[in-house]
Each structure stands twice: as structure tokens, then as C-alpha cells.
């Protein structure tokens, strides 16, 4: 599989951070997405702990009571924001996924796509970490992410059962992948002077480190 490359500058992509997204579909689902996007924007700017539900409703252009029709409590809103972002990240990471490719190639694609999403959407990526460390999510919440997350767990389980990966829980492999990926994204965004070649060398080597850590020799 050809090595993946990311050819944009972190300085350029900081300005995107998911801006310009709109709710998908019509009616209730679209309004729900508008509320989630408003929450993401304000949580990213001020921290979810400093953001009131009233301010989210105002930012979304709806009454506070309308927000509560979708999310009865602030805790519900925070959890749904996390689920929404997890689905978005996993969906972006899975673009171009080949179910019959070699496991290493499959994980390399998920790695590069996921890090590209993180670098292009740093506010959203960082907000996921803020919510995670607040310990507001349970395994039940993670299971609620739905099919994309379960497909990743199946991929990791198959690697373990097939003897390609170390005997680790699929959830732990996913956590290792996210933690290491987060460190790489942060490092590359801090070092804006890197050339594309330097950036991609770090991406390639960091994937090798991840793969060597979870695979059986």
C-alpha cells in the first residue's frame, strides 16, 4: 500500500475546525444537528463547564425549552456531543477502507485518515479529549456510537484472534490508537514550520511505532 501523505499546513487548517457545517436532513434531525454544532462551537471556545444550555440555545437560534426537548439535561447534551464527534471522526477515518486488504494496511489507512481529520478539526478533536477526561462516558455510551465503532472493534478482535495482534482488549487497542494519534496531532500542530516531507515522515514513523506496539512479531 502506498504511504499516505498529508499535504496541507496545520497553520492553514486551524481556521476550519469544522466551520461551515450544517445540519443534515430535514425536520427534527436537522434541528438536533444545529443544536449539537452550536454546542460544539461554544464548548470549544469556552469549555463545556463554562457554557450554559441557554447560551447554546441562543447560539443555535432556538428557545432554551426547545433544546431541552432534544437534550433533557446538560449532561445529555455533553454525551451526545461526544457521540456525534466520535461518529464523525470514525466515519472520516474509514473513508476508502478496504475490507479485504491486509490488516496493517487497513490500520494504516485508519491512522492517516484519523490524524488528517484531527489536524483539520483541532477544536473538535480537542473537545473530545476534554469530555473524555471528565469521565462522563461509560462503556454503554461508547457502544451507543453505533456501527462504525463496532466495526473497529471487530477489526481489532479479528486481529487478536488471528494472531496478528497482541492479546489486548479491542477497546484498549482503540484507546492506544487514539492516545498516540492525539500526541502526534498535537506535536505536528505545534511545529508549524515543518515541511510536508518532515510532517509525513513523522506520520509514517509514528504509525510504525503504533503498529510495532500492538502487533505480534
Automatic annotation (TrEMBL):
InterPro entries in UniProt: DNA-bd_HTH_TetR-type_CS, Homeodomain-like_sf, HTH-type_TetR-like_transc_reg, HTH_TetR, Tet_transcr_reg_TetR-rel_C_sf
DNA-binding region boundaries: 52-71
SUPFAM superfamilies given in the database record: Homeodomain-like, Tetracyclin repressor-like, C-terminal domain
Keywords per UniProt: DNA-binding
Record domain HTH tetR-type: where: 29-89
Pfam families the UniProt entry points to: TetR_N (PF00440)
PANTHER family, sorted: HTH-TYPE TRANSCRIPTIONAL REGULATOR RUTR (PTHR30055), REGULATORY PROTEIN (PTHR30055:SF222)
Protein name (record): TetR family transcriptional regulator
Amino acid at each position: 500500500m502506498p504511504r499516505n501523505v498529508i499535504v496541507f499546513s496545520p497553520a492553514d487548517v486551524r481556521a476550519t475546525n469544522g466551520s461551515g457545517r450544517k445540519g443534515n436532513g430535514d425536520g427534527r434531525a436537522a434541528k438536533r444537528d444545529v443544536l449539537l454544532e452550536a454546542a460544539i462551537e461554544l464548548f470549544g471556545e469556552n469549555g463545556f463547564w463554562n457554557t450554559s444550555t441557554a447560551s447554546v440555545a441562543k447560539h443555535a437560534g432556538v428557545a432554551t425549552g426547545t433544546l431541552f426537548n432534544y437534550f433533557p439535561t446538560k449532561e445529555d447534551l455533553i454525551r451526545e456531543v461526544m457521540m456525534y464527534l466520535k461518529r464523525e471522526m470514525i466515519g472520516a477515518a474509514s473513508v476508502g477502507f478496504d475490507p479485504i486488504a491486509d490488516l496493517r494496511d487497513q490500520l494504516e489507512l485508519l491512522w492517516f485518515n484519523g490524524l488528517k481529520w484531527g489536524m483539520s478539526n483541532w477544536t473538535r478533536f480537542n473537545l473530545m479529549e476534554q469530555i473524555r477526561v471528565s469521565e462522563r462516558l461509560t462503556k454503554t455510551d461508547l457502544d451507543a456510537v453505533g456501527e462504525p465503532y463496532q466495526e473497529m472493534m471487530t477489526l481489532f478482535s479479528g486481529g487478536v484472534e488471528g494472531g496478528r495482534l497482541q492479546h489486548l482488549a479491542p477497546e484498549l487497542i482503540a484507546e492506544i490508537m487514539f492516545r498516540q494519534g492525539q500526541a502526534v496531532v498535537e506535536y505536528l500542530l505545534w511545529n508549524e514550520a515543518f515541511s510536508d516531507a518532515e510532517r509525513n515522515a513523522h506520520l509514517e514513523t509514528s504509525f510504525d511505532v503504533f503498529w510495532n506496539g500492538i502487533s505480534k512479531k
